[in-house]
Amino acid sequence: MKVLPFKIPKPENATLVVQEDIGVKFYDKLHQHQETQISLIKKGEGTFIIGDHVGEFKQGDVFVIGENLPHVFNNDELEDDVHMISIFFMKSSYGEEFFNFPEFEKLDAFFSASHLGFITRSAPEGLLDLLIGIVRQKGLERFISFMEILKNMSNHPAHTLSSAIHRKTYGEEEGKRMRNIFEFTLQNFDKSISLEQVSDVANMTPNAFCRYFKQRTNKTYVNFLLDIRIGNACKLLAKKTDLSIAEVSYRSGFNNLTNFNRKFKALKGVTPSYYRKQA
């Protein structure tokens, strides 16, 4: 199976695929596919990358990932097991004009936002019930629930994820290079990482790598690494209250407490101590 592009296995004559992932980890390779994806995190926490956005996911989050939008979910090692329910579909599967009928006008915002990916947090119970229930359904019953899910999500506040200028489809070789960069970073963010090290992973010179990464993610590698480190620090501050701020800083890849406090406040708007009190 190729990592990029990723092929969604489809039963014969199926236009709608429902997949349930239960295990010790999610599929942790950067990938993209033609289908739009709706995913409920039923259990698990960790870091996600969607397009050029780095963030944290937790139980109850609902994601919509548009067609050919690169993404990966990397769950925390502290989790015993994880559980995700996903729906995969192509807008064109029901005919090029199907969703253009006047009856579907309220879904325009959903499809428009899906191109950049979005997340719905604190989803209403009705939406969660629909996403959980669709796993057991077949045929027309499943399609009706699918339409109810689209209707429900079009009425609920959501947060757009990727940048408007990120719309890029990776070829297989380029996808593998970006996958290797992301994997290396997610596995080593808590250590010192030099531009020389990561550019070696990409098989490029440091200067060429910096230009390459910025062109494809709309951010510098240094800022990308900072997003991941601060995200990890937020989880430790909230969950590991026995750790000192200095220890949180060290475990998140910072070797200077003053620098950690400055970077954290610049990104989160509050100090690490204040963040812990509010978590």
Q: Can you list the strand order of the major beta sheet?
A: 1-7-2-5-8-9
Assign the CATH architecture of the largest domain. Answer: Sandwich
**Runs with pLDDT <50, length 5+?**
1-5
Distance between the termini: 41 Å
Major sheet size, sense and barrel closure: 6 strands, antiparallel
CATH class of the largest domain: Mainly Beta
Secondary structural class: alpha+beta
- Beta strand %: 15-25%
Q: Care to count the β-strands?
A: 9
Q: Tell me, what's the shape?
A: globular
Which percent range fits the helix content? 40-55%
The number of helical segments is 10
Mean pLDDT: 88
Radius of gyration: 20 Å
Secondary-structure element sequence?
EEEEEEEHEHHEHHHHHHH
| CATH fold field value of the largest domain | Jelly Rolls
Number of domain modules = 2
Q: Please name the fourth-level CATH homologous superfamily of the largest domain.
A: Regulatory protein AraC
Describe, in plain words, how this protein is organized in 3D.
- There is one protein chain.
- The protein is of the alpha+beta class and 279 residues long.
- The protein folds into 2 domains: 16-160, Sandwich (Jelly Rolls); 189-278, Orthogonal Bundle (Arc Repressor Mutant, subunit A).
- It has helices at residues 108-114, 125-133, 139-154, 172-188, 195-201, 206-217, 221-239, 245-251, 257-268, 272-278; strands at 16-23, 36-43, 46-50, 53-57, 62-65, 71-75, 82-89, 118-120, 159-160.
- The strands form 2 sheets. The chain has a 6-stranded antiparallel β-sheet with strand order 1-7-2-5-8-9, with helices on one face. Strands 4-3-6 form a 3-stranded antiparallel β-sheet, with helices on one face.
- Helix 5 (195-201) packs across helix 6, helix 7 (221-239) packs across helix 8 (245-251) and helix 7 crosses helix 10 (272-278).
- The longest helix is centred in the last third of the chain and has 19 residues, at 221-239.
- Mean pLDDT is 88; it is low at 1-5.
